């Protein structure tokens, strides 16, 4: 009798353990299926609006993994304060600043196009500042790179990236300038390039002043979907690969 009881207990235990594993396996499967379905629910991006070849310049990706092409060149327009930007973005930039001023916000481009040499000296300066505070050169360099990109890997070399702050702190603080731009810049084709919640993807610390021109259609998608440029480009590449695959 005792023997039978023990056998029943063992059988019940084995049954419970296997039921647990079966449950884990199937629920994992369900979770995965739900995830895949959810990603399909997001409307596809309208590629005809964003990826004609003439507009490729707007979506150039420059970051630690994607250096500027060797043959890169850009025609610049000079702003009244001497900063230079890609001449093609000048009209939209002007319009954005006019509209901001009409709302009592006074922005100023404090850094735009940089040469490779300028980028190199900025990174050196940032590194040196940290070495002087007692960090080792290597640690200082790593920390500096979170704020200042390496030469050849800075968006500022494209003329499409702008650091924007206040033109007059007494009239509108840099903080209010950034807030206005984060809310409105997409209407003019600009995005906040390094949002706080994307630092693990962009590799750059949250820079509330760094805006990037990507064109109006892309800027709206990035703004509305809460993406960063790296994510957006990944999506449209995947989508256009899928489209060209289905056309074959
Ligand atoms: Zn910047």
Model description:
This protein is of the alpha+beta class and 248 residues long. It folds into 3 domains: 1-41; 49-114 and 155-248, Muramoyl-pentapeptide Carboxypeptidase, domain 2 (2-Layer Sandwich), CATH 3.30.1380; 116-153, no CATH class. It is built from 9 helices and 6 strands. The strands form 2 sheets. A 4-stranded antiparallel β-sheet has the order 3-4-6-5. It has a two-stranded antiparallel ribbon with strand order 1-2. Strand 1 and strand 2 (84-86) form a beta hairpin. Helix 4 packs across helix 5. The radius of gyration is 26 Å and the shape is extended. The N and C termini lie far apart (72 Å). Residues 25-41 have low confidence and may be disordered. The structure holds zinc ion.
Query: How many structural domains in the coordinates?
Result: 3
Tally of individual helices: 9
Order of helices and strands: HHEEHEHHEHEHEHH
* CATH A-level architecture of the largest domain: 2-Layer Sandwich
Percentage of residues in strands: 5-15%
Global outline: extended
What about the largest sheet?
4 strands, antiparallel
Structure summary:
51% of the residues lie in helices and 10% in strands.
Overview features:
51% helix, binds zinc ion, 9 helices, 248 residues, 3 domains, four-stranded antiparallel β-sheet, two-stranded antiparallel sheet, 6 strands, alpha+beta, Muramoyl-pentapeptide Carboxypeptidase, domain 2
């Amino acid at each position: 009798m005792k023997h039978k009881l023990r056998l029943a207990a063992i059988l019940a235990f084995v049954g419970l353990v296997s039921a647990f594993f079966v449950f884990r396996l199937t629920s994992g499967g369900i979770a995965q299926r739900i995830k895949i379905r959810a990603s399909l629910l997001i409307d596809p991006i309208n590629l005809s609006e964003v990826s004609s070849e003439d507009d490729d310049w707007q979506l150039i990706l420059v970051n630690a993994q994607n250096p500027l092409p060797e043959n890169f060149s850009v025609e610049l327009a000079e702003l009244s304060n001497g900063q230079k930007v890609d001449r093609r973005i000048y009209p939209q930039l002007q319009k954005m600043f006019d509209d901001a001023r009409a709302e009592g916000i006074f922005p100023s481009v404090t850094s735009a196009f940089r040469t490779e040499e300028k980028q190199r000296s900025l990174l050196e300066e940032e590194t040196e500042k940290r070495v002087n505070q007692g960090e080792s050169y290597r640690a200082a360099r790593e920390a500096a790179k979170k704020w200042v990109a390496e030469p050849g890997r800075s968006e500022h070399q494209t003329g499409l990236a702008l650091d924007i702050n206040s033109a007059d702190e007494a009239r509108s603080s840099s903080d209010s300038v950034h807030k206005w731009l984060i809310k409105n810049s997409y209407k003019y084709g600009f995005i906040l390039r390094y949002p706080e919640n994307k630092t693990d993807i962009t590799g750059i610390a949250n820079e509330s002043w760094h805006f990037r021109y990507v064109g109006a259609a892309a800027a709206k998608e990035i703004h509305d979907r809460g993406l960063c440029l790296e994510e957006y480009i990944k999506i449209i590449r995947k989508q256009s690969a899928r489209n060209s695959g289905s056309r074959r």
